[in-house]
Amino acid sequence: MSDKGGKGGKSALKSPDGSAKLKGRKVQFDSEDMFDEKFETNGNGKSNGKDSGKGKGGKAGPAKKEPPQVLLKVEEELPENAKCLMNCEAAQILQGIQDHMVLLSKDPTIKIPSSFDRALQYANTGNFYTDPQSVRQVLESLKKQDVSDGEICVIANTGIDTTEKAFALMPSLKAKQIKVIEPLSAALTELTKLKESTIVLD
Amino acid sequence: MFFHIVLERNMQLHPRHFGRDLREKLVSKLMKDVEGTCSGRHGFVVAITGIENVGKGLIRDGTGFVTFPVKYQCVVFRPFKGEILEAVVSMVNKMGFFAEAGPVQIFVSNHLIPDDMEFQSGDMPNYTTSDGSVKIQKDSEVRLKIIGTRVDATEIFCIGTIKDDFLGVISDPGTTS
Q: Are both B2-77 and B84-171 of the same fold?
């Protein structure tokens, strides 16, 4: 302990509880400073007091500044040759790979990494549709209204069924609300028909 | 979010693998080397779905190894800021909770949990509303929004929020069991 102080024996007396380690460092925890600098954020989420679909109204402090909205900008961050996949499409591809894994590789040392299993499980959990092609067809029509691939995938992956939910969950979509609302409403109605009847959402 | 993408990698192969099975050996090595890895730009490489092209090999000076440029298609998983994910809660503590969506781990701080949800300690720590109608505990499914990401050499960590409209618990293991 006394070695840490750096000022001989006195430091041990000054910091019997080991607080010398923290000397000179002020640590604060609040909603503004809570993120590690390494985290890339452009805001800490909207906290307007309205919370989860099931929760009651929050008590967000009125004095707090409204943080900037986090917009989905998939296209800006990905290379051109990347194509977004909906969970239902990914589930189909990954399931196919798992089924044919033995045929694909004769090398017994190749093991399926744990990330594959977790990804497949996740894709299956967020898979509300039995026919990915139909879902893609329905949602592709929204591209004419400048709905991005990323937004299309979020719509499919979350299984949202109303335009209200879509606009609330994706602020980027809300900016195009006027021209999108009608085709989106029609698409969501189509998706509801395609949705697996076994899965009941909140 | 999942993506289908074409990537390229220079594969080094030992001369003992040269022969009729060279291509198969290359693909096997590629799968071993690439699947399950993680990069900041592309995220987790979940699975290789096809080989686009294997280029001409180049002998490395001083060694017998030959480098082949291989173009391959793969499925990757990468979380994005602003993305809505449905994740399974893996751990709850007074600082917040951790949830998993595929290979990605997301931390939701207690600052980003609705204010009317309070931490309850005990055998099964949880966040519960004052009327007890909504509970977040281990194995609960939550819909959250990613607000920050940090990429490590082997993992991607995210910060999420459930403090917004239509976010929060979508299935509670306590109610189904």
A: no
- B86 to chain A: which residues are within 8 Å by CB? 125-126, 157-158
DSSP B62-124: TSS-EEEEEEEEEEEE---TT-EEEEEEEEEETTEEEEEETTEEEEEEGGGS-TTEEEE-SSS
Q: Which CATH class is domain B84-171?
A: mainly beta
pTM score above 0.80: no
What residues of chain A score a pLDDT lower than 70? 1-68, 102-110, 196-202
Residues of A numbered 41-60 whose beta carbons fall under 8 angstroms of chain B's beta carbons: which are they? 41-60
**Cα nearest neighbour of B105 on chain A:** A118
pLDDT tens string B114-163: 999 999 999 999 999 988 889 999 999 999 999 999 877 677 889 999 99
Q: What is the ipTM of this complex?
A: 0.89
Sorted by where each begins, the domain ranges of chain B are: 2-77, 84-171
Enumerate the residues of chain A whose CB falls inside 8 A of the CB of residue B157.
Answer: 39
Rounded to a whole number, what is the distance in Å from the CA of B72 to chain A's nearest CA?
12
Give the residue from chain A lying closest to B160, CA to CA.
Answer: A45
Which residue intervals of chain A are DSSP H helices?
Answer: 2-5, 10-14, 74-77, 87-99, 101-104, 114-125, 132-140, 149-158, 163-169, 171-174, 177-194
pLDDT value at residue A24:
47
pLDDT tens-digit series, residues A118-143: 999 999 887 888 888 999 999 988 88
Which residues of chain B make contact with A118, given a CB cutoff of 8 A?
Answer: 100, 102-103
**Closest partner residue to A107 among B28, B76, B77, by Cβ?**
B28
Q: Rounded distance, CA B58 to CA B78, Å? A: 33
Confidence of residue B76 (pLDDT cuts 50, 70, 90): very high
Q: What's the fold here for domain B2-77? A: Dna Ligase; domain 1 (3.30.1490)
